Amino acid sequence: MSLVEPSDAEVAMARYVARRLSPGAWPLIEPYLDRTQEHELHLMTCPDAPRPGQVTVSTLSLHRRRNLVDGEDVRVELVTTLRHPDVDLCSGLVVACAFTAVKERLPVRAGTVFPDVVGELLDGRARHLLVTAPWSFPTLARYPLSEGVEVRWLQAVPVHDGEREHAERSGADSLVELLHAAGADLADLDRDPVPLPA
Q: In terms of DSSP H, where are the helices of 22-63?
């Protein structure tokens, strides 16, 4: 399989995301192939956005796959912002999760967990990646890709073991509300766990 250029629509998506990060953010778009060379993915990275020292990474072509959530085909993209010096490792984290979802036909929705990927790839104390509503990116909730096709971005947030268990019990939104109430930095892979209700 040979890599193809991103479509005009995907380039427009990347610019749309970058404009919402910071005025000077410039998206870098790269294609990826999985190890079997059966699956392709386009990815956007914006170093030092929305703040210096952070990197925002978003898939751009995950929406091409069917994503059945409770019987409905919901087209999604994953976005995350991380504080980490290695942009390539941050990109690799999102690519690994996206290819896992594609190959395992895993529904991607709020509450989906990619276990241990942050710990394994980035050595973060918050070891898991939890998919949530786009709390840090409210304007990305719905994006009209074309007539009749709407893309919904979901945010990927690093979480600790106990936080993952709370999200599985009480829902991803409940956990993110606790994270925000505690003032947790969702980009910090090495933050302390937040206090959880008994």
A: none
Residue 26: DSSP 8-state: -
Report the distance separating Cα 132 and Cα 150, nearest Å. 18
Q: What pLDDT is stored for residue 3 in this prediction?
A: 67
Q: CA-to-CA distance for 40 and 101, rounded, in angstroms?
A: 13
- Nearest residue to 117 (alpha-carbon basis) of 57, 53, 47, 178: 57
pLDDT for 76-106, tens place per residue? 999 999 999 899 999 999 999 999 999 999 9
Angle at 109 between CA 161 and CA 66, to 5 degrees: 135
Instruction: Output b/e per residue, 80-89; b: 16+ Cβ within 10 A.
Output: bbbbbeebee
- Tokens describing residue 142: 């719905």
Phi, psi of 46 (to 5 degrees): -130, 95
Structure token digits, residue 46: 């914006």
Residue found by looking up tokens 């380039």 in the block: 11
Closest CA to 73 of 136, 7, 151: 151
DSSP 8-class letter at 180: H
And the tokens for 19?
């404009």
Burial class (CB in 10 A: 0-12, 13-18, 19+), 22: middle
Q: By three-state DSSP, how is residue 99 classified? A: helix
- Distance (Å, whole) CA 66 – CA 68: 6
